[in-house]
Design brief:
Largest sheet of chain B: 7 strands, mixed
Number of strands of chain B: 22
Distance between the termini of chain B: 36 Å
Largest interface: A-B, 24 and 25 residues
Number of helices of chain B: 4
Number of strands of chain A: 24
Number of helices of chain A: 4
Helix content of chain A: 10-25%
Order of helices and strands of chain A: HHEEEEEEEEEEEEEEEEEEEEHHEEEE
Shape of chain B: elongated
Strand order of the largest sheet of chain B: 13-17-11-22-21-19-18
Oligomer: heterodimer
Shape of chain A: elongated
Radius of gyration of chain B: 25 Å
Helix content of chain B: 10-25%
Structural class of chain A: alpha+beta
Chain lengths: ~325, ~325
C-alpha cells in the first residue's frame, strides 16, 4: 500500500513539476545540467561527467552512477569522487546517493571531449508528520431489533470530547429507530473527537475534487447521496461542515471511505453489523495546494438492510507542498 | 489658554453607519477630552484621568489596558483611571486604550503639560461577531405548510436549506418529517455574522462554569430550559469541543423574548409553543463558579411547536 502511495506521489509530483511553480520542483529529488565545457584531456570517444550531489540537508555526498536503464552498467570513475567518464552518445544516468536515494535523468546526448557538470539533490523518503483533528465524528446505529452493541475505536491519537463518555469503548443499547441508550440516558448518536498525527504522504492527493465555494453545498449533497447517507445524517454533516468549508474560496476535498477511514481510526463493532458506512472528509484550502489536479472519486450507496452502522467525520489538513 | 490645549488634542471621531440591520449609528472607539484642570499641587507632574465607557454609555467594568506609545502598559479594572506623568514622559505621543473584546481607542498628545489634569472620556466599541449554528426544529402532529422568515440582527451568512428571498417554505408531514422544495431535512439552519456583542451579552442569565463541570452544567441547564434529548444532544456535541478550550467560561443565556434581540422569526402560522435558547461563551478568569440553573421548565410541546438553539463565542483580544 505504501508503495502504491509512493508511486502515486512520484507521478503526481512529476506532473506538478512539469507545470508547477519552482517551489514545488524543489520538493522532490531533482537534477540540473549546469554547464558543458570542452575538455581536450578526454579521449576522442569519451565524455566526462562531474556530479555535484547533495542530500536534503544540502550536505555533499558521494554517488555511484549507472548508465541507461536496460542494463546495470556502472559508470567508470575518472579520478576524484563523483567524476565519471562515459562513452560518447545518449545516456540516461541513474544516480545513487550514499543516502540511498536515487534519480534517473532523461536521456542526455554526451558529446565526445566535453565535460558535463550536473548538480543533483537526492532526497530520501521520510515521514512528514501532519496533525489532523478529527472533528465531530458521529456514529449512528440502526439495528433491526433492540440490541446491545459494543464499539471500540482504534484511534492512534488523543481523544478530546466524547459523548456519551468513551471509556475504552462504548457499550450501549441501540434501537431500530436509531435511539441509543447509555447509562439511563438516550442519545441520537455517539460522538468523539481528538487530535492525531499522520504521515502527510499517506494522503493521496490524486484523488478528490477541487470545489469552489458556491458549489460546496451541491457537491456535498451529491456526494453524500451517492454514499447513501440518509436525510438526517446528511443534514448533520452539511450544517457542520458547510460553514467551515465556505470560509475558503476553493477547497480540495477528499473522502476516506470504508477501510480508508482506518487511516484516522479503525473500529470494532460487536455484534458485527450487516452494513457499515464510514465516511471521513479531508479538506484544505485549494490555494495552498497549487498544481494538483485530482481525479473525482466515485462511490456506491450502501444497503441499509439488517444492522447498519454509519459514521461520519472530517478534518482540515495542512499539507505543505514544500515538503512533498 | 484653554483653546490652545483643545487644539493640541485630536479626537478622530467620524460617524459610521453600523451594519447591524437596524440602521443605528455608532461612533467608532474614541477618546474625548472632557476638561482640563490646572493644579499647582501636582508639583510639576501631569495627571491623566478619566472614565472608560462602553458604546452604550455605561462604565466598562472589565479589564482595560493602557499603553503609552505602544509600551509601558498599565492595566485597570472598574472603568476609572488616574495616572501621573513625570517630565521624563514628555516624549509620549499617543495613549491607546485596549479592551478585552473592543476596538482600541487612541488619544494623541503633542506636549507634556506640567501641573495640569487632563480629564478624558474613553468610549470602547465592541467588535461584532458571528451567531453560530442556530438550528430550528419544527414539530407538528398534523400536516401543515408554513412560510418562515428571519429578521436578524446581523447578516445571514449561511443557511440550509437555503433561504430563498429571506424565506423558507416548509412542509411538515405530521409524522415528524420536514420538507423544503420536496427534500427532507432534519431542521432549518442558519449562521449570521456581524452581530453586536452587546446584544449577545445583554442578559441576566449568566453562569460561570469551570472545565470539569461544563457537561453536567449544560445537561441540567438545557433540560431545565426545556430542550429534549435530541436537541440537547445536538447542542452539546456542537459546543462542548469549543468550550473545552477554555479552563473557565462565562456562559450567557438568552431565551424567550430576549432571543428577539438577536433574531426574530416571522411565520405564516401561529405557533402553539415556542422555545428558543441562545448561549454566548466568553472565557473567564473569575476565581469561583456561579450557576444559574433555573427551575425545570414545563414547556408544553403540544400543537405546532418551534424549538431553536444557537450560540456564539467571544474571543478575547490578546491584550499587550
Amino acid at each position: 500500500m505504501k508503495q502504491v502511495i509512493f508511486l502515486a506521489l512520484i507521478s503526481l509530483s512529476m506532473n506538478v513539476w512539469s507545470q508547477g511553480p519552482a517551489k514545488v520542483e524543489l520538493a522532490m529529488s531533482h537534477y540540473k545540467l549546469d554547464s558543458t565545457v570542452i575538455d581536450t584531456s578526454l579521449s576522442s570517444n569519451e565524455a566526462g561527467i562531474v556530479l555535484n550531489a547533495q542530500d536534503q540537508n544540502g550536505s555533499r555526498m558521494n554517488v555511484s552512477v549507472y548508465l541507461d536503464s536496460e542494463a546495470l552498467r556502472l559508470a567508470k570513475k575518472a579520478g576524484g569522487n563523483n567524476i565519471f567518464a562515459v562513452e560518447a552518445g545518449n545516456h540516461s544516468l541513474n544516480i545513487f546517493g550514499s543516502n540511498g536515494a536515487n534519480i534517473i535523468t532523461d536521456s542526455i546526448n554526451f558529446e565526445a571531449a566535453k565535460k558535463y557538470h550536473i548538480s543533483c539533490r537526492l532526497y530520501t523518503e521520510r515521514e512528514i508528520p501532519m496533525i489532523v483533528r478529527p472533528a465531530k465524528p458521529i456514529i449512528y446505529l440502526y439495528p433491526e431489533t433492540d440490541l446491545e452493541v459494543q464499539i471500540k475505536l482504534d484511534f492512534k491519537g488523543e481523544f478530546g470530547f466524547t459523548y456519551p463518555h468513551y471509556d475504552q469503548g462504548w457499550i450501549v443499547k441501540a434501537s431500530p429507530d436509531g435511539k441509543i441508550s447509555h447509562a439511563h440516558k438516550t442519545y441520537d448518536y455517539l460522538f468523539w473527537d481528538g487530535e492525531m498525527t499522520i504521515d502527510q504522504k499517506d494522503v493521496d492527493l490524486k484523488q478528490g475534487a477541487i470545489v469552489p465555494k458556491n458549489q460546496t453545498i451541491t457537491f456535498l449533497e451529491e456526494t453524500l447521496n451517492e454514499l447513501g447517507l440518509n436525510a438526517n445524517e446528511k443534514n448533520d454533516f452539511i450544517v457542520y461542515w458547510g460553514p467551515l468549508l465556505m470560509k475558503n474560496e476553493r477547497n480540495y476535498i477528499q473522502f476516506l471511505v470504508a477501510e480508508d477511514y482506518d487511516l484516522i481510526a479503525g473500529v470494532e463493532v460487536q455484534p458485527q453489523p450487516d452494513n457499515v458506512l464510514r465516511v471521513f472528509m479531508l479538506y484544505q484550502n485549494a490555494d495552498l495546494l497549487p498544481g494538483i489536479s485530482p481525479v473525482k472519486q466515485t462511490f456506491h450507496p450502501i444497503q441499509r438492510s439488517g444492522f447498519t452502522f454509519v459514521e461520519w467525520g472530517g478534518s482540515e489538513m495542512n499539507v505543505s507542498m514544500d515538503n512533498l | 489658554m484653554k483653546t490652545l490645549i483643545a487644539l493640541i488634542l485630536t479626537f478622530g471621531i467620524t460617524q459610521v453607519q453600523a451594519e447591524d440591520g437596524r440602521g443605528k449609528e455608532y461612533l467608532p472607539s474614541h477618546v474625548k477630552l472632557k476638561k482640563t484642570i490646572d493644579d499647582e499641587g501636582l508639583d510639576g507632574l501631569m495627571c491623566i484621568q478619566g472614565l472608560v465607557k462602553t458604546s452604550w454609555g455605561d462604565t466598562l467594568k472589565g479589564r482595560v489596558q493602557i499603553a503609552f506609545d505602544g509600551l509601558n502598559f498599565k492595566e485597570i479594572e472598574g472603568g476609572t483611571f488616574n495616572f501621573l506623568l513625570g517630565t521624563k514622559s514628555d516624549s509620549i505621543k499617543e495613549i491607546t486604550f485596549h479592551g478585552e473584546y473592543h476596538e482600541p481607542a487612541k488619544f494623541k498628545m503633542t506636549k507634556f503639560q506640567a501641573n495640569r489634569h487632563l480629564v478624558l472620556e474613553v468610549t470602547l466599541v465592541e467588535y461584532m461577531i458571528e451567531m453560530e449554528k442556530p438550528v430550528i426544529y419544527l414539530y407538528s402532529d398534523v400536516q401543515r405548510d408554513i412560510e418562515l422568515s428571519l429578521e436578524v440582527n446581523g447578516i445571514v451568512d449561511f443557511s440550509y436549506p437555503r433561504l430563498d428571498q429571506g424565506k423558507w417554505q416548509v412542509h411538515l408531514n405530521g409524522k415528524g418529517g420536514l420538507f423544503h422544495n420536496g427534500e427532507a431535512y432534519a431542521y432549518l439552519f442558519y449562521d449570521t455574522k456581524q452581530t453586536p456583542i452587546k446584544d449577545l451579552i445583554n442578559s441576566e442569565d449568566v453562569s460561570i462554569v469551570s472545565k470539569d463541570n461544563y457537561l453536567s452544567f449544560l445537561e441540567t441547564k438545557l433540560s431545565n430550559l426545556g430542550l429534549n434529548d435530541s436537541e440537547r444532544n445536538d447542542f452539546i456535541v456542537y459546543w462542548m469541543p469549543r468550550l473545552l478550550k477554555n479552563e473557565m467560561s462565562e456562559l450567557i443565556f438568552k431565551s424567550g423574548v430576549s432571543y428577539d434581540d438577536l433574531a426574530k422569526i416571522k411565520s405564516s402560522e401561529k405557533f402553539d409553543s415556542m422555545l428558543r435558547v441562545f448561549m454566548t461563551i466568553k472565557p473567564s478568569n473569575a476565581g469561583h463558579e456561579s450557576y444559574i440553573l433555573g427551575d425545570k421548565s414545563n414547556f408544553d410541546r403540544s400543537g405546532l411547536t418551534l424549538v431553536e438553539w444557537g450560540g456564539s463565542e467571544i474571543k478575547l483580544n490578546k491584550l499587550p
